[in-house]
Amino acid sequence: MLTIAPLKEIFRKYDFRPLKRLGENYLIDPNIKDKIIAEASLSPQDIVLEIGPGLGALTTDIARSGAGVFAVEKDKKAFSILDRMIAEEFPNLKLIQGDILEFDLQSISVSKKIKVIGNLPYYITTPIIEYLIRNRGRISYAVIMVQKEFANRLLAGPGTEDYGSLSCFVAYYSKITHIHAVSRTSFYPEPDVDSSLIRLDLLDVPSVVVKDEGLLFKVIRGSFNQRRKSIINSLSRENVLNMPKEALSGLLTGLKIDPRIRPEMLGLSEFAKIADSL
Fold first, then answer.
1. What CATH number is attached to the domain comprising 250?
2. Contact, 234 vs 263, CB < 8 A?
3. Would you say residue 208 lies in a domain?
4. Same domain, yes or no: 129 and 195
5. Hey, is 99 helix, strand or coil?
6. pLDDT of 155-184, one tens digit each?
């Protein structure tokens, strides 16, 4: 992989300057690279989508596995440099210049589910997570690097400060695992924050059974929009359920949920019970 000296040489040779607005911080730590490749568990039978290959810190190792690789890079200049450096070396690698959020996974015409690898740009991490979940029928799992604070929100459980609607959304559609903490010194240029390597296993069926997904997430969002209030005060508001407090109190009590409890103390299954009872 590219460590800091050869990376700087590429910057000099091609007059390349990483774009902060695109979150371009390149991995230079071979130990973290090895952890990513090991966790992805690649074989020649696999199909891989790499999000943001940049200058190829992971791309060459992914391609050396023999897997079919589709690498989507938004930065036109980074794409051009990577294309010149490695495209001809790997016939199993297809470099694509474009925005991952606009990439149609249906264009990868294989029946097997896809593995996703990427060092996600921090400024669009949430939209990319939503993209992965939206395409969960085509994806087996994703091994991705995200900002540490964002990972904490994804991994959080009830009763913790980081727990919120995003935690519930991801837990509904996937199983999330923390793989490794990643220091900001593992990147060049060095970002302002540390990162976490995580794995998302997309579920064939959601983690809880619910009658109406839309209503479930309306309940969850409405609850966490006023997370410091009691669950009854959060949900009874006009723009959420618009229910009389007396009726809502009876409903919650019947579900063995204390109406005075804060939303952050409720798990996904309890939110599902509330939604199903409406």
1. 1.10.8.100
2. yes
3. no
4. yes
5. coil
6. 999 999 999 999 999 999 999 999 999 999
